[in-house]
Amino acid sequence: MKQMKHLTLSLILLLATMCRGQAQAHRDLQAFQALESSLHYQQGTISLEKGMANVTLPDQFRYLSPQDTETVLVKIWGNPTAKGTLGMIAPAGQSFLKRDSWAIIISYADDGYIKDSDADKIDYTKLLKSMQDQIREANPTREKQGYPAIELVGWATPPTYDREAHKLYWAKELKFTDAKHNTLNYNIRVLGRRGVLVLNAVASMDQFSEIQQQTPQIVKMVDFTESNRYADFDSHTDKVAAYGLAALIAGGIAAKAGFFKLLWVGLLAAKKFVVIGAVAAWAFIKKLFAGRNASET
Fold first, then answer.
1. I need a surface site. Which of 13, 147, 263, 265 has the fewest CB within 10 A?
2. Contact 60, 91 (CB under 8 A)
3. Quick one: 224 and 127 in the same domain?
4. Run of H or E including 197
5. Element (H or E) spanning 155, and its range?
6. What domain range includes position 260?
């Protein structure tokens, strides 16, 4: 009987803890829903960086301003920073509170005109190995700063360069030590007269086929305006970037900007699992008590 009382007390304490956890999880979910409700979606043609470039959106996509992008990346998705973006493109009708949500983050680097003369000379297998080594070497620093280690699993899509449009795209599969699912890092670069537009689609590998299918349309959405295009380069007045396409793929911009190398999706998914976990624990406790008769309890 004494042992039964101790067991009952332990179950009561566990139940109280689970109830508090469940209540907190529901409050967190309500807070996330309020954040998502505050977002202002835009349609049509969006001007970027004082008219330097335009985003022309088809009906199935929406645009979010830099401020709303920060709300999604930092407050909803839990990334450490979101400064310096030009906004975000996301599928219309999706909820950022769901695990299968994804978005395309836009930024710009005014590093100068990037020569594409090395486009046909890049050994992408060798480049991948070099990138994997660099990421592995940087992991101890990331972990000291409280961030999970990253493994570059490989190319999800090898780099492809369109010489006529001066657009480059590729995809990497990343694995974070504290994540159950691998992360898809889909990269699109639009070369311009004075710099490059950086588009990164951050999502789970589960969305790879969807994003891969949408890539041709996404690539067409973003273009520099007249006098800012790649073909408008003036060798007498314009700066030439200190790196080429290989360094661009390897992360020349990310290393300078310090943004995308720490960008990942996962915190919200963990919070969703907390909610599910609290409900599952409550169901388990009810099952325990249901298996006892009145005299036992």
1. 13
2. yes
3. yes
4. strand 196-204
5. strand 150-162
6. 41-265
Question: Which residues are CB-neighbours of 278 under 8 A, at least 6 positions away?
Answer: 18, 21, 22, 25
pTM given for the model: 0.75
Distances (CA, A) of 290 to 10, 235, 286: 16, 80, 6
Assign residue 53 a region: left if phi > 0, alpha if psi is -120 to 50, beta otherwise? Answer: beta
C-alpha to C-alpha distance for 36 and 46, rounded to whole angstroms? 21
Q: Where are the beta strands (DSSP E) in 97-137?
A: 103-109
Residue pair 126/155 in contact (Cβ under 8 Å)? The answer is no
Long-range contacts: 30-35, Cβ < 8 Å, 24+? Answer: 32/76, 32/97, 32/268, 32/271, 33/97, 35/71, 35/75, 35/76
Torsion angles phi and psi, residue 243, rounded to 5: -140, 165
Three-state SS at 290: helix
* 97 and 114 fall within a common domain: yes
The predicted-structure confidence for 90-113, as pLDDT tens digits, reads as follows 999 999 888 788 899 999 999 999
Domain with residue 82: its CATH number is: 3.40.1000.10
Tell me: the pLDDT tens digits for 61-89? 999 999 999 898 888 887 766 678 999 99
Is 241 in the same domain as 293?
no
Together in a domain, 76 and 5: no
Helix, strand or coil, per DSSP, at residue 203: strand
User: Is 152 in the same domain as 277?
Assistant: no
Contact, 185 vs 202, CB < 8 A? yes
What's the domain count of the chain?
A: 2
Closest CA relative to residue 107, chosen from 81, 78, 79, 87:
87
